[in-house]
């Protein structure tokens, strides 16, 4: 039985962790003089505050369910587990390992990614039936991740220095107020001309992103919901919903509880580790 | 089915039913019915006349965590074939204990190990014997008993292998298709020189990643996995081909350079012990055009050149001076559908092998594979000459559990 595929793409972290002190300070400041503080910050500073509030988690493990729906509502599900090692240096991306549990034919298949900022990521695929580890190309940033509405770059593309930023303004987003930023990919091979991101002014979390395709037409909307806080200051969305406006298809990512503080090092993200998975 | 295989299977289930009392065994696997449809009636005497060959494979997989760093794995495999009693066989693909420590690991028992990077031929991959009766592509392997010690360091990874028992290659039997005019009788296997079923084979592999470069170096000393085939008669006086195994020394190197959408690949070996010492290599590229013509389909273009300098006294190969061209389609659909079409042409003789492999997911539990093989222009000197009337289509359904 030959394996004929170069299979999936990758995923990464997507949220943050402001300290309690900072959080309450901003909440108080926010009540007193709402738009002023944000207005004085540059677009990059707002993005950086959101991204840096995300730092310091060191490592995490989470199980998730990916639910794909076509325009007719027909559903397909994958289950996977993701382990992430935070790289504190902002000039490098995080390392992460995605391990598929279902459907049966891709059970045990794993994808290891060493994310970069501007350079192409390094990626290896593990095919359990042959026990083969394949280095694969990461040039396919705009391609779909396992047939879903998430492109590879949607998931690893959240690193601060991958974009340039412009502040569009502030507007209500649900019960919160959001800074609205336009961000333009600086890396090669992106499928987007630009994205518009909504970041709330209380917890500095991403709430929504609109994606514009290469013709600058609205392609997709990603909404972040069900934020939960870990250890008082680590925020994670547990429900990501991506809707493709051009095809009517959608994909939801539903996370179980995160586990932080794993005893992991670079060695746990070496390509030889793929052969240790079960 | 060989008695040894039966014994091994019985042993597996006895062991696992004992441990299963402890609970927490993770069980998965698949059942896979398949149908081979041949275009022509068979070419050789003794082959079953039917152009339809049904068969069924079962591979349960058991995993048990002894602790955070220790794991037991058992993966037996069974194949039933309607016509070919040699293809009806069982194997232990894996049956091992693994201790996974920080920076080193140790695996004891039956295991599978893959080395290499190229698509059209697996030259450096030598630890496991090929289960050739499963598939002519050589990617199905028999479980190999071994002790495998691995070191993971900043300077790279080092693995040392000691393999106390030799596994003989499987071949289609008298009734089977996809074989030479005389069938290969594995029961008559001959070992030359110091080679035997109990020779201790040794191997070492170093691998590392330097930026875009994935590099592997390997050394093997032991019984060559590829046998020579000599005409003879078996115990019942039938004319057959007899596999001959010899001690070899093989040095291998495999390199992949990943540059954007280009994957550049090379595998090369030098082998002593089968005729004159010879070198062989396979090298080429895979280039992928993502979202080809905005179709959403990824189009991969593959080209590899195969050279093999072995002399006529060494085991025969069809990969001596051949060009491999391939086309890979990734449909990026929710069914993860994919297709690989390939052509192998011997540029000296003009012999051609064309193959097609396609797969798609039918549901969370079922998948479908379709494979086809067609040969053309085979001269009588080609080691694949016996396949000239074996053009076929294979339909395989797999149920995962």
How is this structure best described in words?
The complex is a heterodimer of chains A (278) and B (401). Helix content of chain A is 13%, strand content 42%. Chain A has 278 residues and is mainly beta. Chain A has one domain: outer membrane lipoprotein receptor (LolB), chain A (Clam), CATH 2.50.20.10. In chain A, strands 1, 2, 3, 4, 5, 6, 7, 8, 9, 10, 11, 12, 13 and 14 form a 14-stranded antiparallel beta sheet that branches. The longest helix of chain A has 13 residues. Chain A is globular and about 55 Å long. Chain B is mainly β and 401 residues long. Chain B has one domain: Porin (Beta Barrel), CATH 2.40.160.10. In chain B, 4% of the residues lie in helices and 54% in strands. Chain B has one helix and 21 strands. In chain B, the strands form two sheets. Chain B has an 18-stranded antiparallel β-barrel. In chain B, strands 8-12-11 form a three-stranded mixed beta sheet, with no helix packed on it. The longest helix of chain B has 18 residues. The two termini of chain B are 25 Å apart. The model of chain B has no long low-confidence stretch (mean pLDDT 94).
Low-pLDDT windows of residues of chain B: none
Tell me the span between the first and last alpha carbons of chain A: 20 Å
Q: What is the N-to-C succession of helices and strands of chain B? A: HEEEEEEEEEEEEEEEEEEEEE
Radius of gyration of chain B: 22 Å
Instruction: Write out the CATH superfamily name of chain A.
Output: Lipoprotein localisation LolA/LolB/LppX
Number of helices of chain A: 4
Order of helices and strands of chain A: HHHEEEEEEHEEEEEEEE
Level of helix content of chain A?
10-25%
Uncertain stretches of 5 or more adjacent residues of chain A: 6-38
Major sheet summary line of chain B:
18 strands, antiparallel, barrel
Number of strands of chain B: 21
Tell me the name of the CATH homologous superfamily of chain B.
Porin
Largest interface: A-B, 42 and 65 residues
Tell me the name of the CATH class of chain B: Mainly Beta
- Give the proportion of residues in helices of chain B: under 10%
CATH architecture of chain A: Clam
**What fold name stands as the CATH topology of chain A?**
outer membrane lipoprotein receptor (LolB), chain A
Please give the largest β-sheet of chain A: 14 strands, antiparallel
Assembly form of the protein: heterodimer
């Amino acid at each position: 039985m030959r394996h004929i595929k170069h299979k999936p793409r990758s995923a990464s972290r997507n949220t943050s962790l402001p300290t309690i002190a900072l959080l309450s300070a901003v909440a108080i400041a926010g009540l007193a003089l709402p738009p002023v503080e944000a207005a004085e910050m540059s677009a990059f500073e707002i993005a950086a505050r959101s991204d840096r509030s995300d730092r310091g988690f060191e490592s995490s493990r989470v199980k998730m369910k990916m639910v794909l729906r076509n325009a007719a509502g027909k559903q397909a599900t994958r289950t996977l587990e993701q382990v992430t090692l935070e790289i504190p240096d902002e000039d490098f991306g995080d390392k992460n390992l995605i391990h598929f549990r279902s459907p049966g034919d891709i059970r045990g298949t794993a994808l290891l990614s060493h994310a970069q900022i501007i350079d192409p990521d390094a990626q290896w695929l593990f095919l359990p039936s042959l026990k083969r580890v394949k280095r694969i190309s990461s040039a396919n940033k705009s391609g779909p991740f396992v047939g879903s509405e998430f492109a590879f770059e949607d998931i690893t593309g959240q690193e601060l220095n991958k974009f340039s930023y412009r502040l569009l303004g502030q507007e209500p987003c649900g019960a919160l107020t959001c800074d609205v930023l336009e961000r333009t990919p600086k890396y090669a091979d992106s499928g987007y001309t630009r994205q518009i991101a909504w970041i709330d002014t209380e917890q500095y979390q991403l709430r929504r992103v609109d994606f514009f395709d290469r013709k600058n037409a609205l392609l997709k909307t990603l909404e972040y919901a069900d934020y939960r806080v870990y250890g008082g200051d680590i925020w994670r969305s547990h429900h990501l919903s991506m809707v493709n406006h051009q095809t009517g298809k959608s994909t939801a990512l539903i996370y179980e509880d995160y586990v932080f503080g794993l005893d992991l090092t670079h060695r746990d993200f070496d390509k030889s580790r793929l052969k240790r998975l079960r | 089915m060989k008695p040894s295989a039966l014994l091994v299977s019985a042993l597996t289930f006895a062991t696992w039913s004992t441990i299963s009392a402890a609970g927490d065994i993770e069980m998965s696997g698949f059942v896979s019915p398949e149908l081979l449809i041949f275009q022509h009636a068979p070419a050789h005497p003794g082959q079953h006349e039917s152009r339809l060959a049904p068969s069924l494979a079962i591979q349960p997989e058991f995993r048990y965590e002894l602790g955070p760093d220790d794991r037991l794995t058992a993966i037996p495999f069974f194949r039933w074939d309607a016509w070919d009693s040699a293809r009806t066989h069982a194997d232990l693909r894996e049956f091992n204990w693994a201790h996974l420590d920080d920076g080193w690991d140790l695996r004891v028992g039956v295991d599978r190990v893959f080395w290499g990077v190229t698509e059209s031929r697996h030259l450096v991959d030598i630890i496991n014997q090929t289960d050739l009766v499963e598939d002519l592509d050589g990617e199905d392997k028999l479980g190999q008993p071994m002790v495998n010690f691995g070191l993971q360091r900043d300077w790279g990874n080092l693995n040392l292998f000691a393999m106390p028992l030799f596994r003989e290659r499987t071949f289609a039997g008298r009734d089977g298709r996809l074989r030479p005019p005389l069938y290969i009788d594995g029961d008559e296997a001959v070992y030359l020189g110091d080679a035997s079923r109990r020779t201790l084979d040794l191997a070492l592999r170093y691998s590392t990643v330097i930026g875009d470069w994935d590099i592997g170096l390997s050394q093997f000393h032991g019984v060559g996995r590829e046998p020579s085939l000599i005409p003879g008669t078996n115990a019942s006086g039938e004319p057959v081909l007899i596999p001959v195994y010899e001690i070899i020394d093989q040095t291998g190197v495999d390199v992949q350079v990943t540059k954007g959408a280009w994957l550049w690949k090379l595998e090369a070996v030098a082998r002593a012990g089968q005729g004159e010492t010879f070198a062989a290599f396979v090298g080429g590229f895979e280039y992928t055009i993502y979202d080809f013509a905005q179709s959403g389909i990824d189009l991969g273009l593959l080209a590899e050149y195969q050279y093999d300098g072995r002399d006529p006294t060494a085991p025969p190969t069809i990969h001596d001076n051949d060009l491999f061209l391939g086309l890979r389609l990734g449909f990026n659909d929710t069914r993860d559908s994919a297709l690989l079409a390939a052509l192998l042409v011997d540029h000296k003789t003009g012999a051609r092998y064309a193959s097609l492999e396609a797969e798609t997911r039918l549901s969370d539990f079922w998948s479908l594979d379709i494979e086809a093989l067609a040969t053309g222009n085979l001269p009588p000197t080609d080691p694949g000459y016996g396949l000239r009337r074996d053009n076929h289509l294979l339909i395989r359904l797999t149920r995962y559990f």
